[in-house]
Write a structure and sequence with these properties.
By secondary structure, the chain is of the alpha/beta class. It is built from five helices and five strands. Strands 2-1-3-4-5 form a five-stranded parallel sheet, sandwiched between helices. The longest helix is centred in the first third of the chain and has 15 residues, at 14-28. GO terms for molecular function: electron transfer activity; FMN binding.
């Protein structure tokens, strides 16, 4: 059984809903899953998991949230190694460029990004199903 961390930051609840669906998808495949706020996760936690999913909405001009998520991300990304990693988040405007930039940043740091997922605004049933599939793929 794999152990998976779903680490997220959410301002409006959209990315939190996505995180919960990712966690449910992983759990449905038998994984032990922990859903963790970004402020409560650090590089020292990474070694305790077989795979990790990170969720953050697009902020400002399509960038990661700068107060809690970005510092946590900068701390953990060098520790990810070959662990499976998924990135997800919601956005309200733009084209999803923040996710392309985020994935590139993760891969440049050596992370094994298996998939990414973006949902416009609040995730609908289809979006939540996609989140569950993302979680299942990590398990």
């Amino acid at each position: 059984m794999s152990k998976i961390a779903v680490v997220f930051w959410s301002g409006t609840g959209n990315t939190e809903a996505m995180a919960n669906a990712v966690a449910e998808g992983a759990a449905s495949k038998g994984a032990e899953v922990e859903t963790i706020q970004a402020a409560d996760f650090s590089a020292t936690n990474v070694s305790g998991y077989d795979a990790l999913a990170f969720g953050c909405p697009a902020m400002g001009s399509e960038e990661l949230e700068e107060g809690e998520f970005q510092p946590m991300w900068d701390d953990v990304k060098p520790e990810l190694g070959d662990k499976k990693v998924a990135l997800f988040g919601s956005y309200d405007w733009g084209t999803g460029e923040w996710m392309d930039t985020w994935r590139e940043d993760a891969e440049d740091a050596g992370a094994n990004v298996v998939d990414t997922l973006i949902v416009n605004n609040e995730p609908d049933d289809e979006g939540l199903a996609s989140c569950a599939e993302l979680g299942a793929a990590l398990a």
